[in-house]
Specification:
With about 210 residues, this protein is of the alpha+beta class. It is built from 8 helices and 5 strands; from the N terminus they run ααααβαβαβββαα. The chain folds into 2 domains: about 60 residues; about 130 residues, 2-Layer Sandwich (Beta Polymerase, domain 2).
């Protein structure tokens, strides 16, 4: 039997967001699992409603603050490198209208982060053939459509880059070309949650860390 919390929901949300941000930045957990684990750390085994959990915007802001305090000597350069690797792959995949999304775009990427690209093309087999011709062995799985329209076929593989001492995961979500119009809409905060090659080039130029 669960017991009813008598604490302030806002304070609980803040504490869960702080704990979840650390789990994401240090251990590479995804947002959903980080929230669940952080909630258990904060309130124990008490079952809590969704309104007690931070939303993704609040969690993203806490990740930024955590990185600024504890990872400021490494995270900016790592982020720049991951964005550069993303740009390289987007240029290779230029025929498929690639867009960058996720933590590498929004600036919260760390050592556990993968690169997430969305491709817009009428024939998903063209992308698979391209990868095979390039010598890339990939795995096929599904991810959620950004507009909630069902699963999207996604090709995933690991790549090694001389700029990093680790392999980086690349995920290519394969959308139909007519999905592109919806993809360019802004969110409630006026942000476009994806960037094409030109936008990423501007971001790299504007946000380059010192010494890069």
């Amino acid at each position: 039997m669960s017991r009813k919390l008598s604490l302030d929901p806002q304070r609980i949300r803040e504490e869960i967001a702080i704990a979840a941000a650390r789990l994401i930045a240090e251990d590479g957990l995804d947002y959903a699992n980080a929230k669940r684990k952080a909630a258990k750390q904060v309130v124990g085994d008490v079952r809590i409603a969704g309104e007690w959990l931070p939303d993704n915007d609040q969690l993203e802001e806490e990740i930024r603050q955590y990185q600024a305090i504890f990872q400021s000597d490494t995270q900016p350069a790592l982020l720049h490198t991951l964005r550069t690797i993303a740009l390289d792959w987007m240029q290779k995949l230029a025929d498929f209208q690639p867009f960058l999304t996720g933590a590498v775009l929004n600036g919260t990427a760390g050592e556990h982060s993968d690169i997430h690209l969305q491709l817009f093309n009428d024939n998903s087999k063209d992308v698979a053939i391209f990868l095979l011709n390039t010598g890339i062995q990939y795995e096929v799985h599904e991810t959620r459509h950004f507009a909630g329209r069902g699963p999207v076929e996604t090709l995933s593989f690991l790549t090694r880059d001389d700029r990093l001492s680790m392999r980086v995961g690349i995920h290519l979500a394969l959308y139909d070309a007519n999905d592109l119009r919806g993809a360019l809409r802004t969110d409630l905060r006026g942000r476009t949650p994806r960037a094409n090659v030109a936008a990423l080039q501007v971001l790299l130029a504007e946000a380059a860390p010192s010494g890069v």
